[in-house]
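@channel anyone free to eyeball this complex?
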Amino acid sequence: MAIAPKANIVREDLLRVEGVTKIFDGVVKAVDNVSLTVAIGEIFALLGGSGCGKSTLLRMLAGFEAPSKGKIFLAGEDITNLPPYQRPINMMFQSYALFPHLTVWENIAFGLRRDHMPKEQIVERVESMLSLVQLTKYAKRKPHQLSGGQQQRVALARSLAKRPKLLLLDEPLGALDKKLRETTQLELVNIIEEVGVTCVLVTHDQEEAMTMASRIAVMSEGYFLQVGSPDEIYEMPNSRQVADFIGNVNIFDGVVEEDESDHVTVRCNDCLHYVGHGISGNSGMSVGVALRPEKILLTKEKPTGEYNWCEGEVTEIAYFGAYTTYHLKLNSGKVIKAQELNNTRDLSCGLTWGDRAFAQWSDLAMVVLTQ
Amino acid sequence: MNTNMIKWFSQSWMVVVYIFLYMPIVTLVIFSFNDSQLVTVWSHASMRWYAALMNDSDLIAAVALSLKIAFFSALISVFFGVFTAFCLNRYKRFSGRTLLSSMATTPLVMPDVIVGLSLLLMLVSMQHWLGYPERGLFTILLGHALLGTAYATVVVTSRLREMDGKLDEAAMDLGCQPFQVFRLVTLPLLLPALVSAFLLTFTLSFDDVVLSSFLSGPGYSTMPMVIFSRARLGLNPTINAVATVTIVVVTFAVIASSFYTSHQERKRRREVAQAYSDTNK
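replying in thread with the prediction:
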C-alpha cells in the first residue's frame, strides 16, 4: 500500500508523551493513558468528536492543565510541571484570542516583549511575521477591523513570532466559513512548512486532518483508536469506529468461510466477499467488511462472477455535481451507499428511483474489520 | 389594538413619564431664578440667589467636601471592587467563595439606615477602646467606600463575565506571568467598566445623606446634609440655586459621556463593515 513519502522519513523525536492520564473531579477520565511521539517537522493531528479528550490533551501540552499521571517531554526535557509561560510552545486558539485593545503589530510583538528582546530585533521579527502572513499593510489595525481570515492569520503570526519548538493549533479553521476554509487550509500548511515548525493540531473535521496532517491520531473516550498517516487511516482502518468516523463506509456483517494466507472469503446476507489479502483471524469468525461508497460500481446488468456483487433497489439519489450518491436497498433490507463519478454530462449509469441495480467491487476494495 | 392606538398610547405615556420625572426638577430650576424671599411665591426673575450662593461659604465648603469624599470613596470602591470581582470570577474554587460572592453584594439590599447605624456603633466602640478614629471625613469616606465596593463589584463582575477567558490563556501562553496577565490584558480590557463603576460610586457618594449623617462629626457636613438641615429650618432659595448648578453639571456630564460612547460604537461598526468589504473586493 502507498504511504505518503513525508511520513516515511525517519526524523528525531521532538515531543514525547508517556502514559498521560487526566482525571477531572476524581471521576471523569478525559484522557486515558495516552502515549505518543511527534517527530521534528511533523504535523500531527488529534481527531475526534466533542468530548473525546483531544482538547484536554492539547491543553496539557500547552500547560493549562496538569496531567494526573504520566510525563511530557519536549526535546528530551521533562516539561510536565512547567507553567505555560515557561514552555517553548505556543498555541493558536480556536477563537484566535487576539487582544482587542492592541493593534495587529502589538499583538504579534506581545510575546517578544515578554522575553525582553531588544527593540530592533522585535521590529525586525514582527515585520517578517507580517510579510509571512501578508498583513503588512494592516499592521496598525485593531483586531475588530479585520475579517475572520485576516484575524486567523494574525493569530498564526502571533503564535509563530516567538519561534516556538512546538506549535499547537486548536481547531485552526473552526471559525471560518466553508469556502474560506479550503484556501486557508493550504495557506496554513504552506506557512507552517515554510517555517518548519513542528505542529500538533486538534480538529473534529476529518477533511481538515487529512489535508493538513502527516499523521493522525483518531481519539475516542480519552484514548487513541488508531494512529497513522491519512491514507492508512482511510484505507486501512483498524476498527469499526475508525472506519465509521473517517468518511462514509458500508459495513457488511459476515462470517469468515475460507481463511488463506493470500485471500479470505466472507459470507454475508446479501453477498459473498472475496478479499484479496490475508487477515489475522480464523474461519468461522464473525467480522465486518468495510467498503467505501466510491469503490462501488453500479450497473444495470448482472455481473458474471460469483462474488463481490449484490443486487438491490435504488431508493435515494443525491446529486452533488461532481458525483452522485445512490442508496441501494438490498434484498435483506440493508441499505448501502454507492458513489458514482459523473465523468460525462449525461449521467452515464442512467439509474433512477425504483430501478433494480447491481453493485460490484474489486477484491482489493474492502477491509476486514475484526474488532 | 391597531398600530395607531399603540402609537397614541406610547406617546401619551411618554408625556406622563416626563411630567412625573422632570416636573419637580423643572420647577426647582425655575424657582432658582425667583427674586422672592418665599420659595413658593413667584415675584420676578433675578440672579439674586446665585449671587448669594457665591457668598455662602458654608454651602461652598460642603460642596467641596462632598466632591472630595465622592472622588476618594469612588477610587477606593473601584480598587476593592476590581479585586473582589476578579477573585470571584477567575478562581472558581477557593474556600469561602460562595460566602464572599453573596456577602460582597449584601450592602446593595441592606437599608442604608442599618448599614449606617451598625458602622456608627462599631466606630464609636473602636473610638472608645482605641481612641481612633475621630468621626469626620475619614469615617464618612469609609462608609461610602463600603457601599461603593458592593456596587463596583457588581459592575466589574458583569464585564469580567463576558470577557473571553481565552485571552488570559493566550497571554500566559505568550510568556506572561499571572500578575502580568492582569496588568497587560485584564486591566486594560476592564477600563470601560472601571470608568462606569467610578462614575456610579461617585454619584452614590455625592448624593448620600443617610450614611453621612450617621458617620460625620462636628465640622464635617456634606452638601446633601447641609441642604437637608436647611430644608428643615425652612427652605432658603439659595438651595434652589445650588441644586440647579448641580443639575447643569450632571446633565452636561451625562450627555457628553453618552455622546462619546455612541460615537465610539458608530466608529467601531464602520470599521468592522470596512474590514469585511475590503476582503470581499
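from a first look: Residues 11-241 of chain A form a domain with the Rossmann fold fold (CATH 3.40.50.300).
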